[in-house]
Amino acid sequence: MNLFFPDAVLFDLDGTLVDSAPDLTTAVNRCLADLGRPAIDEDRVRNWIGNGARWLVARALAGRRGIAAEPPQTEAALARFFVHYRDCLHERSVLYAGVADGLARLAVLDLPLAVVTNKPGAFTQPLLEALGIAGRFATLVSGDTLGVKKPDPAPLVHAAEALRVDIQRCLYVGDSAADRDAAHAAGALLVRVPYGYPGDDAVFAEHPADLTLTVPALADRLAALSQSNRMAP
Ligand SMILES: O=C(O)COP(=O)(O)O
Ligand SMILES: [Mg+2]
User: What is the pTM (predicted TM-score) of this model?
Assistant: First the structure.
């Protein structure tokens, strides 16, 4: 798939900009401990991130990713999860390698940037601030900003409207099938990062992403495109 110089770049958060799995695991395990349940390994929790806090908690209660219906204790567990995640939000979460540098180089290209995440809004801005990148984004759309979240395309369309750009002229950088489905339903191009959370690896093995690039590699590619656009007659 050919990369074009976009009007804006939108980013997923967990698994794309930030490796938040260590702190999400702490919060999940404190929540399970409150319910008298045994702790779960971080490697398993990594597979369950990407569809928002409610799905993460429901999967933790069920002990698996694929669930037909929410376990009965989900509502109460979610309230405990929120309390605990607020306490440990940025204890061990880190930016993926090259993200700060890649965002800085995209900003030099005058590209408006936004975050579109399924993470609840109470956590999005504080986490980005703690990691020193909140100022890079003109707009943040979280899992509870609208009545729907990814894979619904509405959060991506909402971000593009806030930036006053056409979503079909945007790139969406993400790590999950929800990101890919939301991007494609909205008419945006999906750039998948080559790391991220492994829950949808099998889906991408069958239907590869449009492009796979790290954030700094994307910045390099867009800088080169901007240069050649300037040189074009
Ligand atoms: O499941 C989550 O809360 C994380 O969501 P994100 O990958 O859309 O940032
Ligand atoms: Mg993600």
Answer: 0.96
User: Which residues are the active-site residues?
Assistant: 12
Domain with CATH 3.40.50.1000 in the chain: 8-19+93-231
Residue 231's pLDDT is 78
Binding region for Mg(2+): 12, 14, 175
- Measured in Å, residue 175 CA sits from the centre of ligand 1 at 9
Distance CA 160, CA 163 (A): 5
Q: Where in the chain is the domain with CATH 1.10.150.240?
A: 21-88
Fold of the 21-88 domain: DNA polymerase; domain 1 (1.10.150)
CATH number for the domain formed by residue range(s) 8-19+93-231: 3.40.50.1000
Please report which helix (H) or strand (E) contains residue 43, including its range. Answer: helix 42-46
Contacts of 116 (CB under 8 A, 6+ apart): 10, 11, 12, 141, 150, 155, 156, 159, 172, 182
For a mutational test of ligand 1's pocket, the pick from 23, 82, 118, 190, i.e. the residue with the most ligand atoms closer than 8 A to its C-beta, is 118
Q: Best substitution site from 23, 25, 46, 51 to test ligand 1's pocket, by max atoms within 8 Å of Cβ?
A: 51
Atom of ligand 1 nearest to the CA of 178: 8
User: Which ligand 1 atom is the nearest neighbour of the CA of 176?
Assistant: 7
The predicted model gives 30-42 an average pLDDT of: 97
Q: 214 in helix, strand or coil?
A: coil
- Asked if ipTM goes beyond 0.90, one says yes
